[in-house]
Inverse folding.
């Protein structure tokens, strides 16, 4: 492996594994500086004035005066300039950020354009474990706020040596950033666990994105709380090591950052009959569900290999995938085109029909020995669907995918797609036939309907959760 050395004023000399000669975690915390609450307060003030596209209509009834908005923006700029010396590796980005903020003001607060600062922010170029970042953009938060409001986030990089070694030698993913929250504005007091460049307001999309961040602390805390509750409700007896895992936030974070890294790269690996990430393609939502599940099951498959090789995180990843997919995904969110929920339903149904999970006497039982192989069998079925899809027309591929899903999940009785091609107007282009897909094409089973009622308060309690949330893993308190 080629050693690449980068000199960073904040973190010291960074080696190929992303470790630093100086302790990045020992630096003064952004969130402890008095300018941080000033920044948050100013951002929250501006957010209230913004429209869905991020603009501020100064001429609207009840709108603030131009002077009031300018004063709030000046406070944002002042706070960024005070905090920036704490994160000198972000200096170029913060200079561009201030310039973009000023350009936004000069435009009369029209639809914001932060492309220049987005291009200047390059966290994947300095993946150092514990390195802080101060991020500010007009953006929507996936699974959170759908509007492009101003958001401020203080975060840290998660890049331990063992993860860097796996990325460098086995799971190449140079754009992936594992991250944890330090603090955030209200757009992240939601279910959002990602920081993605495509959510940011820009005049035009860059030719390619250069980073993507996933908050493993939120994922781990949410996983622990929901899984603990589900295990109690279902009477599931866990192996001792998995029970210990649920009690350990740091251990769960390690499992999730590895899962995320492998999942993320899988979108562009394998026999793909479509563009990676399905960008700008209108497809039935079960196609997105299968893609997300394929990526998760690939991470599961790799985790089985890692466990066999003695990697201490391999077994944890397997059960993080199984439990999050089976217990949380199907009963989270609404039922309108819920493709992640569909993937969780499919995994459970597949394992149930292959006798790996049993629901008997109001108790869930899992055949722990057979679970890895049968889960990998589902991954193989999806991979075969993809490989065969390369030689199929789009609509034929969609029907083949529907057949795979409906083998294990019962379609809605009113579904046109379930009746086959003769029930659809095949003179229309495929994208028009997506309109014939029901919002809830594969409804919840009776098992999941009952589980959803019992888990709904616990799942609602995970909104905005982080590792620092009091009682973050205490499902019994959340359910009270």
């Amino acid at each position: 492996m080629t050693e690449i050395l980068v000199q960073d004023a904040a973190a010291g000399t960074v080696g190929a594994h992303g470790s630093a000669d100086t302790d990045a975690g020992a630096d003064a915390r952004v969130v402890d500086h008095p300018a941080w609450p000033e920044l948050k307060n100013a951002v929250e003030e501006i957010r209230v004035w913004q429209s869905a596209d991020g603009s501020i209509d100064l001429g609207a009834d009840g709108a603030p005066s131009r002077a009031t908005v300018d004063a709030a923006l000046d406070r944002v700029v002042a706070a960024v300039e005070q905090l920036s010396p704490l994160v000198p590796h972000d200096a170029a980005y913060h200079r561009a950020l201030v310039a973009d903020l000023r350009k936004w003001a000069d435009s009369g607060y029209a639809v914001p354009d932060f492309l220049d600062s987005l291009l200047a922010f390059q966290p994947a170029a300095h993946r150092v474990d514990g390195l802080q970042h101060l991020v500010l953009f007009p953006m929507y938060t996936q699974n959170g706020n759908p509007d492009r409001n101003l958001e401020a986030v203080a975060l840290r990089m998660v890049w331990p040596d063992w993860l860097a070694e796996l990325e460098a030698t086995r799971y190449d993913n140079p754009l992936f950033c594992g991250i944890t929250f330090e603090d955030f504005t209200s757009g992240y007091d939601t279910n959002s666990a990602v920081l993605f460049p495509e959510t940011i307001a820009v005049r035009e999309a860059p030719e390619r994105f250069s980073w993507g961040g996933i908050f493993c602390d939120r994922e781990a805390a949410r996983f622990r709380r929901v899984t603990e509750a589900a295990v109690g409700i279902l009477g599931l007896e866990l192996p001792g090591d998995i029970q210990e895992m649920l009690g350990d936030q740091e251990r769960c974070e390690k499992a999730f950052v590895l899962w995320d890294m492998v999942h993320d790269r899988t979108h562009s690996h394998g026999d793909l009959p479509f563009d990676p990430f399905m960008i700008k393609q209108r497809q039935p939502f079960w196609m997105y569900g299968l893609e997300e599940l394929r990526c998760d099951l690939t991470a599961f498959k790799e985790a089985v290999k890692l466990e066999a090789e003695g990697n201490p995180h391999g077994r944890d990843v397997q059960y993080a995938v199984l439990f999050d997919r089976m217990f949380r995904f199907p009963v989270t969110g609404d039922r309108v085109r819920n493709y992640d929920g569909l993937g969780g339903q499919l995994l459970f149904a597949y394992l149930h029909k292959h006798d790996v999970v049993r629901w008997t006497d109001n108790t869930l039982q899992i055949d722990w020995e057979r679970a890895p192989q049968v889960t990998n069998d589902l991954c193989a079925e999806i991979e075969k669907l993809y490989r065969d899809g390369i030689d199929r027309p789009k609509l034929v591929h969609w029907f083949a995918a529907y057949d795979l899903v409906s083998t294990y999940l019962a379609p809605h009785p009113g579904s046109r797609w379930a009746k086959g091609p003769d029930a659809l107007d095949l003179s229309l282009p495929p994208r028009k036939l997506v309109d014939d897909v029901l919002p809830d094409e594969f409804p919840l089973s009776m098992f999941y309907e009952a589980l959803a009622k019992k888990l709904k308060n616990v799942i609602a309690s995970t909104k905005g959760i982080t590792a620092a949330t009091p009682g973050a893993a205490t499902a019994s308190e959340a359910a009270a």
Remarks:
- Strands lie at 6-8, 12-14, 132-139, 149-158, 176-184, 194-195, 212-215, 357-360, 363-366.
